[in-house]
Amino acid sequence: VGPKPLAGKNVVVTAGGTVERIDPVRYITNDSSGKMGFAIAEAARDRGASVTLVCGKTDEAPPHGVRVVKVDSALEMREAVMERLSEADLVIKAAAVADYRPARQAASKMKKTAESLTLELVPNPDILLEIGEWREVRGGAAATKPFVIGFAAETTDVEKHALDKLKRKKCDLIVANDVTAEGAGFGSDTNIVTVYGSQGLAEKLPRMSKRAVAERILDLAQAGIASNRPS
Ligand code: PMT
């Protein structure tokens, strides 16, 4: 039991990879384990928040004291997140959302033939971008709620791509991880992140447990929420 700085706040966290079905037994996904998002959800819960964890594919055990909404695809994740936005004070998008999905989903198991097979993929909606746009349309320049934090999983030019995502997706903070670094990104128990805000670099963190990263992200979120509060 300690101070509960997020008491009374509704926090939505996304975690895990989305699953984009090809047919009833095959799908496209990615290496996200859900650990980063789960750590954030647990840290927010321990700070007194009411937490909804929207999660895709993961082997992590559902955390107690957190509302868990299981989803499969990016389209399902979008629906689960967007319908909770008006109540949310803080949204943190640690999920690895598939950028594309199969154009068609076969109703029954696809049969093998001697021919080569081309899978047509169509773009998925960008949920983070839609959250930014939703907030802008709803509140104009005064839009401060929810406070929105995105992640950027990068393999090259981390800072450049992260700053581009921060601006384009209209979020308040972006947490960049170089997923090629040892002990960072997908699957590991630790992460190495740099957080950027509209003023540029907010915090560069060394390798630490995902829970410790989560605590630092929430510190920054709390500071952001406090400074956004209309006087
Ligand atoms: O789950 P773990 O194994 O613990 O790994 C953690 C992690 C590497 C998955 C996590 O730290 C991370 O970086 N998550 C974001 C992964 C990702 O999809 O990055 P991106 O650069 O492709 O997307 C940028 C942001 O836009 C993300 O907040 C993502 O949730 C969001 N996005 C992306 C595509 C899309 N269609 N909709 C989105 O909302």
UniProtKB/TrEMBL annotation:
Top-rank taxon, per record: Bacteria
Cofactor note: Binds 1 FMN per subunit.
Entry's EC annotation: 4.1.1.36, 6.3.2.5
GO cellular component: phosphopantothenoylcysteine decarboxylase complex
Pathways per UniProt: Cofactor biosynthesis; coenzyme A biosynthesis; CoA from (R)-pantothenate: step 3/5; Cofactor biosynthesis; coenzyme A biosynthesis; CoA from (R)-pantothenate: step 2/5
GO BP, one annotated term: pantothenate catabolic process
Keywords from the UniProt entry: Decarboxylase, Flavoprotein, FMN, Ligase, Lyase, Magnesium, Metal-binding, Multifunctional enzyme
Entry keyword Lyase: yes
Cofactor(s), by name: Mg(2+); FMN
Family in the record: In the N-terminal section; belongs to the HFCD (homo-oligomeric flavin containing Cys decarboxylase) superfamily.
The protein's name: Coenzyme A biosynthesis bifunctional protein CoaBC
Source organism of this protein record: Cohnella endophytica
